[in-house]
Design a protein that fits this description.
With 382 residues, this protein is α/β, with parallel strands linked by helices. The protein has two domains: 132 residues, 2-Layer Sandwich (Enolase-like, domain 1), CATH 3.30.390; 235 residues, Alpha-Beta Barrel (TIM Barrel), CATH 3.20.20.120. 35% of the residues lie in helices and 18% in strands. The chain has twelve helices and 15 strands. Strand 7, helix 6 and strand 8 form a beta-alpha-beta unit. The longest helix has 21 residues. The mean pLDDT is 97. Bound molecules: magnesium ion. Magnesium ion binds next to loops.
Length: 382
């Protein structure tokens, strides 16, 4: 089995109304989806959710020539070969480019063996993963948290038993929002917040104190992603677990953060940190620190399905919430690229089932993507 073609699909959509976090209004969401094709017709998918255009250029110029003609079963060797080309860019788009290819290679390799990616990587520890609603998001206008109760209500009806609203408008407003949400959902639903890097360490500490009565499971990305001192200051000052890591790409970046005791929960994103190969290396590093790992996923169905596979491979740990960790994140904003194969089904216990199917169980075609494609490209084996 040989890799004979690498296809890139630039896809995106414009959320309307814009979805907000503490730093920005998201008016456009663009992704790169990579489809790798083999000579026996098996196809696999990978994704880049951040810096899709830079990653595409790196794939086309540096990585595709290394993988065309190679066996996708050699995904580990190919990962090392690709990473060896990084040069100076060790924590950015280069690793995102490797991530998309590594994801697609795993998908193909598992499909060729007739097993799921989790089975190929040694076997799932569980067949249901506890899901949480990633939302609601901050709204433009005078009442940034005003829509939260209505959205939470809808998500409760859909079966979600945990929520991660965006916070970071201001410590006082955060406290009012989080404490009201706790009253709304009762004591048994998991609550956490995502600050999306927006606060100074001092504002994050103030906000954490004001949200204390909401009994949050974690506060995510309170400060800038590589602000080791800021993270360590917040982590030492508040009783709530601090989570982060979605913006980190290299094993060395995670090591720096873990050594400084910044995180109580670690959230690598498969599309940023080197695909399955990068993710499992980071998970091993976190195991040495006895820290729970949960995949960050805020993109298309491609990353979501991959996140589900790795979530089944991570050891369980108890963080005090309605279920043992790991949880899996589901974007609950309108996202047609997440719903390409229909909306997710949340079981009555708040979990999502791990499909026992070859690869990640995703059978996507270019025609499914058509309404959202802005550009495509392809490179073939000569
Ligand atoms: Mg986040």
């Amino acid at each position: 089995m040989k890799i004979v073609e690498v296809r890139g699909y630039h896809v995106g959509f414009s959320p309307n109304p814009a979805i907000g976090n503490s730093r920005t209004w998201i008016r456009r969401r663009d992704f790169l989806l990579v489809e790798i094709v083999t000579d026996n017709g098996i196809r696999g998918w990978g994704e880049v959710f951040s810096s899709p255009h830079a990653a595409a250029a790196l794939i086309q110029t540096k990585l595709t020539p290394l993988i065309l003609g190679q066996s996708p079963l050699a995904y580990r060797r190919l990962w090392e070969t690709m990473v060896a080309t990084h040069g100076y860019d060790r924590r950015g788009a280069s690793m995102m480019a490797v991530s998309a290819i590594d994801m697609a290679l795993h998908d193909i390799a598992a499909k060729s063996l007739g097993v799921s990616v989790a089975a190929m990587l040694g076997g799932a520890l569980r067949d249901r993963i506890f899901a949480y609603a990633s939302g609601p998001f901050i709204a433009e206008g005078t009442d940034p948290y005003g829509q939260y109760p209505g959205i939470v209500d809808e998500c409760l009806k859909r079966g979600y038993r945990a929520f991660k609203p965006r916070a970071g408008v201001g410590p006082r407003q955060d406290g009012e929002m989080a404490n009201a949400m706790r009253k709304q959902v009762g004591p048994d639903v998991g609550l956490m917040v995502d600050i999306n890097q927006g606060y100074t360490a001092r504002a994050a500490i103030d906000s954490a104190h004001r949200m204390a009565d909401a009994h949050l499971l974690w506060i995510e990305e309170p400060v800038q992603p590589e602000d080791i001192t800021g993270y360590a200051t917040v982590a030492a000052a508040v009783p709530t677990a601090i989570a982060g890591g979605e913006a980190l790409a290299s094993l060395a970046a995670f090591k720096d953060m873990l050594e400084a005791r910044t995180f109580s929960i670690v959230q690598p994103d498969l599309t940023v940190c080197g695909g399955y190969t990068g993710f499992m290396r980071i998970a091993a590093l976190c195991a040495a620190y006895d820290l729970p790992v949960m995949a960050h996923a805020f993109g298309t169905v491609v990353n979501q399905r991959a996140a589900l596979q790795v979530s089944s491979l991570l050891p369980a740990s108890r963080g005090g919430g309605p279920a043992a960790y790991p949880y899996i994140e589901y974007d609950v904003t309108p996202n047609p690229l997440l719903d390409l194969q229909g909306p997710v089904t949340i079981e009555s216990d708040g979990t999502v089932s791990l499909p026992d199917v070859p690869g990640t169980g995703l059978e996507l075609d270019a025609k499914n993507l058509e309404p959202w494609i802005t550009k495509t490209w392809s490179q073939t084996y000569q």
